[in-house]
Design brief:
Number of helices: 15
CATH topology of the largest domain: Beta Polymerase, domain 2
Mean pLDDT: 86
CATH superfamily of the largest domain: Beta Polymerase, domain 2
CATH architecture of the largest domain: 2-Layer Sandwich
Largest sheet: 5 strands, mixed
Structural class: alpha+beta
């Protein structure tokens, strides 16, 4: 199978995944996000643990792709638009009402062209293609062109992830071996609090998906391989190619945590609704509800020492 045919097959598989039906609450919130974009939204993607579980509790994870950040933020809000453009994405937290139920949503916003570029294997930031090599759904799209752009971007993400998996993974193994090895590397390159078993739960949900997509993505990447007994695959990666891939990954690993840290620092100033998100998270995990004053909400960084001391005194932090 040549690379073009493999990409067409892979793209068809990704299009089918993105088009899977979602609960009405998920699509209604996606439509609400699109409606508040001043016409700038092109697509809204849904992903994460709630996609895997189908539940509405916890936090619903969305990505809103826009063709204009100034359009998303509205007139006069050039500073958050500039911050979003320089270091995407920016995050907001919402508590939408749906059928007398309060839902919680964490929303990442970035330009559609930045999203597409972030899916390329040669980029230094691994977070975006790593996330979207995992299952996702297209919860809303503006038109057919926007849908096709999202499908193409997610297809690129799977090809990028599979390319790294083949060049960094074992010389021979089943598909699960390559994906597990890759996701452990990508998680290790980010600031994360998940347990080491996180990759096991990802693979358990994906099931045969990862087995099916890996050879298609390798073929689309022009990475030749042979199939052996027991479902084992052997990618044709030379020693030199492995050395170059290892060196390239070392650079990305070194840059990953600092880049995540800078994003966190940006979020301290640009995370719209971030204070409410943190307060909800603390209450969810500790049972302690912290009521903030208007001044503390306006100046979360200045207020943080006192707030942290109060939370520690009340047993929310140990």
């Amino acid at each position: 199978m040549n690379a073009d045919d493999a990409r067409r097959q892979l793209r068809g598989a990704i299009a089918g995944e993105l088009a899977l039906p979602l609960p009405a609450a998920i699509t209604d919130v996606a439509a609400m996000l699109a409606a508040r974009s001043h016409g700038a939204a092109t697509a809204v993607l849904f992903y994460g643990s709630n996609l895997r579980s189908g539940a509405l509790d916890g936090v619903l994870d969305y990505y809103v792709l826009v063709d204009s950040l100034r359009g998303w933020y509205g007139p006069g809000r050039w500073l958050p638009a500039a911050a979003n453009r320089l270091l995407p994405p920016s995050i907001l937290y919402l508590e939408p009402r749906w059928q007398d139920q309060t839902l919680r949503a964490k929303v990442a916003v970035l330009r559609a062209d930045q999203f597409r570029r972030a899916m390329r294997r040669n980029g230094l930031d691994t977070t975006m293609w790593a996330r979207y090599s995992q299952p996702a759904a297209l919860a809303w799209h503006r038109d057919a062109a926007s849908r096709d752009d999202a499908i193409d971007a997610v297809t690129d993400a799977v090809i990028s992830a599979a390319g790294w998996a083949g060049r960094l993974g074992p010389a021979v193994g089943v598909a699960n071996d390559y994906w597990q090895s890759l996701f452990k590397r990508t998680y290790g390159a980010e600031l994360r609090v998940e347990k080491a078993s996180r990759t096991d739960s990802l693979m358990a949900y994906g099931g045969e998906r990862y087995d099916r997509l890996l050879p298609l993505a390798w073929a689309a990447d022009s990475l030749t391989f042979s199939a052996e007994t027991g479902g084992r695959l052997r990618p044709a990666v030379s020693a030199l190619a492995r050395q170059l891939a290892a060196a390239g990954w070392s650079l990305r690993h070194a840059l990953g945590k600092p880049l995540n840290f800078v994003r966190l620092m940006k979020s301290a100033y640009t995370f719209d609704g971030g204070v409410d998100y943190l307060i909800w998270k603390i209450e969810r995990h500790s049972g302690v509800r912290m009521a903030l004053t208007p001044w503390q909400r306006r100046h979360p960084i200045l207020a943080s020492p006192y707030v942290l001391w109060q939370l520690k005194k009340r047993g929310a932090i140990r």
